[in-house]
Design brief:
By secondary structure, this protein is α+β, with helices and mostly antiparallel strands. 52% of the residues lie in helices and 19% in strands. The chain has 11 helices and 11 strands. A 5-stranded mixed beta sheet has the order 7-8-9-11-10, with helices on one face. The protein has a 4-stranded antiparallel beta sheet with strand order 3-6-5-4. A hairpin with a 3-residue loop joins strand 8 and strand 9. Helix 4 runs parallel beside helix 5. The termini are far apart.
């Protein structure tokens, strides 16, 4: 009722030959062959005899007798080796992964074949492949995104620094501070460029100061080899020297001009005194001899006296003897008194002397001419009624205040008209390292303040 597997083994014992016959139910072997652990849903194992027909049952054709199932095509594709594995087409016409091995039983040329459908065998491999592809794709995306991000992080400051350097190469100094937070080599480059920009800004500011004539401004070079900074410092020193020389020459020229003017005024005064004055005195004496013409004598004497007074006034304005004989206070006081005589102005003159020491002729004549020119301007243009002349002779400077209650003016308008009087007053003060300030406005009168240092020129 069941298939039996018979083993026949010959033997010789005491010169007697015999055979040992072992019978085993093939069902036990069939059960082992039907075990599919690890072979999935399509796997099977079966035995094939030398006639290329099955010796065990097929799981796919369980109703067929094993010997009726031919596996010749499969067997003919198998090489004569002890073991091998192939992807072949089985007896069902399905593509399978096949493993075979010849049985080691002598005189029995059977082969045991184990197979599983190719699609089922490859399914986990395909799943693994797809999983690996998905992982690879994800990693690729991550790598690409990370690369783009990192490249942007690296390239952004580099491109920014390139734009900054391009601007610097075109002579454009960035006004905003370089903002690079990196602490690597790029950050070090950014720091160096920041120092360069700061140095260029300081150098530019220094150059502007030099161009504005501020030669006393200080400057610190970027280092001992800062060619541009050292060149600017050398240029500043050269310009400062040239400027001092020019100022000295201008002052010497202006001083010589003023000295020539004062000498010429002295000569004119001397000529008026020796020439016109003596002639008027002789004329006066001769007129006094006209005893028979009292009316004519009186008229001529009046004209002569007026002429003598005018000559004296002109002589005082040109060069007052009081400057040489009595000093600045007496000269200014006489100037105010003469101006009061010949105009309708009232004067308030004050001279305060904190130290008792003589002033140099340069300071004395400069202050006198400034006040004299200021009073002349008031008489000609101010339409004033009262003038204050205040002089303070301190230890280190002379302070002068000349103030009127006239109609006032705008200094800008006077400057446009190239007014000689105000300009000459300022030049005389500047020539002695002093300064002159004008405070005026329409209907507000005018105040002129003068400060002339003493220690620097004496």
């Amino acid at each position: 009722d069941s298939t039996v597997l018979v083993y026949v083994m010959p033997f010789i014992l005491n010169e007697q030959k015999g055979y040992i016959v072992v019978k085993e139910k093939f069902q036990r072997i069939q059960q082992l062959l039907m075990e599919r652990t690890g072979m999935g849903g399509t796997g099977e194992s079966y035995l094939v005899g030398e006639d290329f027909r099955m010796r065990s049952s097929s799981r796919f054709f369980p109703t067929k007798l094993p010997r009726t199932i031919s596996v010749r095509k499969v067997a003919s594709d198998l090489p004569d080796t002890l073991s091998n594995n192939h992807i072949i087409t089985d007896y069902r016409g399905e593509r399978v992964v096949s493993y075979y091995r010849k049985l080691s039983t002598p005189h029995l040329g059977w082969i045991m074949i184990s197979e599983i459908d190719f699609n089922e065998a490859m399914k986990p491999i395909r799943q693994l492949r797809n999983y690996l592809l998905l992982i690879a794709l994800g990693l690729s995306v991550i790598i690409i995104v990370s690369t783009i991000f990192i490249s942007n992080v690296i390239s952004r400051p580099i491109l920014y620094l390139k734009d900054v350097i391009t601007s610097l190469s075109q002579g454009i100094i960035p006004q905003q501070k370089i903002n690079v937070a990196n602490r690597d080599e790029i950050g070090q480059i950014a720091g160096a460029i920041s120092q360069l920009i700061d140095g260029l800004k300081r150098t530019t500011d220094f150059a502007h100061e030099i161009g504005s004539g501020n030669f006393n401004t200080s400057f610190t070079t970027l280092g001992t080899k800062d060619t541009l900074g050292l060149t600017l410092i050398h240029m500043r020193d050269q310009l400062k020297s040239l400027n001092e020389r020019e100022i000295r020459l201008v002052r010497e020229k202006a001083g010589a001009l003023l000295e020539g003017q004062e000498n010429e005024r002295k000569r004119i005064v001397q000529e008026l005194h020796d020439g016109v004055g003596q002639l008027l005195t002789v004329a006066q004496l001769r007129v006094e001899m006209l005893e028979n013409e009292p009316a004519l004598q009186k008229e001529i004497m009046s004209l002569i006296n007026d002429t003598i007074a005018e000559v004296r006034r002109i002589s005082y304005n040109v060069m007052p003897n009081a400057i040489v004989d009595f000093g600045l206070e007496a000269a200014l006081k006489g100037l105010c008194e003469n101006s009061r005589k010949y105009t309708s102005l009232s004067f308030d003159f004050q001279y305060v002397k904190e130290v008792d020491r003589p002033l140099s002729f340069e300071v004395t004549i400069a202050v006198f001419r400034i006040v004299q020119e200021g009073i002349n301007n008031i008489i000609k243009h101010a339409k004033a009624t009262h003038v204050d002349v205040y002089v303070l002779d301190k230890g280190d400077e002379i302070y002068v205040l000349l103030k009127d209650d006239g109609q006032g003016f705008y200094e800008e308008q006077v400057s446009k008209k190239n007014g000689f009087g105000l300009r000459s007053m300022r030049e005389r003060a500047t020539l002695l390292d002093g300064n002159l300030e004008v405070h005026s406005g329409r209907g507000k009168g005018t105040a002129i303040e003068v400060n002339i240092p003493i220690k620097k020129i004496e």
